[in-house]
Amino acid sequence: MKNKKNYLALLPIGVFLLIYLGLGVTFEYFLNIEMGFYNVPIIVAFLVAILVACLQNRKLSFDDKLSVMAKGVGDKNIITMILIFMTAGIFVGVVGRSSAESVAYCLLSIIPAQYAVLVIFVVSAFVSIAMGTSVGTITLITPIAIAISQSSGFDLALCVGSVVGGAMFGDNLSFISDTTIAACNGQGCAMKDKFRANFWIALPAALATLVIIFVKTFNEEVVTVSNADYNLIQVIPYMLVLIGGIVGINVFVVLLIGIVSGSIIMLLTGSITAVDLIGNMGIGAAGMFETTMVAILVAALCALINEYGGFEALLNLIKKVFKGQRAGKLGMGLLVGAMDIATANNTVAIVMANPIAKEMSQEYNISPKNAASILDTFSCIFQGIIPYGAQMLVAIATVNELGLSISAFDVMPNLLYPYMLLVSTLVFIFFSKNKNK
């Protein structure tokens, strides 16, 4: 039986943040270690947090705690995420760096290089809307963004941040996104109504992001790449996955199409031998090891915290503190944001916050569509920013797998869209009129 309102159950989260952020700050700013945050062992930090959680609640035996963690890891969302990670890693291993470079050079031969970062953001947004998954979008677009950065001279962190931002735009609005489905089902509103309410929050943020990107890149010296050589045949795998994403094909099918087409093309063009191709598949999958382990450990940790009553305590605290319609909306946002910080999964955060948010919407006369929009939007804001979220981890893993180094804390200042979305959402909360329909 779960304990209720147990604030001490949240201690493992504090332990993790203390280790992860504390070591990162120490390495980066006090010891002056280059890429200090990148050297922080995030898996070890989560293992210590799980150890702390296991030492809590003596009413449960260790075997029972293992069963609780196993149930959390076996959740459908976690399994789906892991399979996407593995499949995406294999895809990157198959097509390699040369294919991404060909796509980048092809794009830069069509559009002025000065607008390449703007295009990255827009393409990521459209693909994410069509696919309904920010993680899948980041997996597909990040290699292209890396190649564009190296080809044009734009800052790598800005290019990666633009991919993540565009992916979160689509994740927030897509009809087939898990977050949209979870928010609408939990608040009892039609997806089209939530989309309409959400669109007028997201659009200003997206437009502001485009303006900021334009200003940041307008005066930058761009390397001329008009004469760069690229292999049009190697563009085909990425074109297939991009088209598949835009038309809304399932992310697994899209990635499999990319793997098969990439394998055939790489073999037929003599770019690689069959033995090396198979080896690259394994290397690609192995490159997602840390990302996969983080997803598993987060699921296990959150299952224990939930079992001990930590999330129940947090939910009730939010409900008590925020009173009134506008404060209620903000409380909903902070509620799902806190759940996302704790779980590093925006869909899970929405599912956990839904019951309390439903009560708050009825008590404060907040329309279901606005409640669903706030839950989805805030979850995407926090998920797009936290350095240990799946989106950031996949982006960083992809960069590292292609032979470069970057940390989440390099990317975070360049997550322009999530920050603009936060501003737009706060304006919506405090200045819009609510109609309870």
Give structural attributes.
globular; mainly alpha; single chain
SSE order in H/E notation?
HHHHHHHHHHHHHHHHHHHH
Q: Mind telling me the C-alpha Rg?
A: 22 Å
Shape: globular
Spans where pLDDT lies below 50 across 5 or more residues: none
First-last Cα distance = 38 Å
Structural class: mainly alpha
Portion in beta strands: under 5%
Oligomer: single chain
Largest sheet: none
Average predicted local confidence, pLDDT: 82
Number of helices: 20
Compute the number of strand runs.
Answer: 0
Short synopsis of the structure:
The chain has helices at residues 11-30, 42-55, 62-73, 76-110, 116-131, 134-152, 156-173, 178-187, 191-218, 232-246, 251-268, 274-286, 289-308, 310-321, 325-343, 346-363, 368-385, 390-401, 408-411, 416-431.
Could you characterize the architecture of this molecule?
By secondary structure, the chain is mainly α. Helix content is 77%, strand content 0%. The longest helix has 35 residues, at 76-110. The chain is globular and about 60 Å long. The two termini are 38 Å apart. The model has no long low-confidence stretch (mean pLDDT 82).
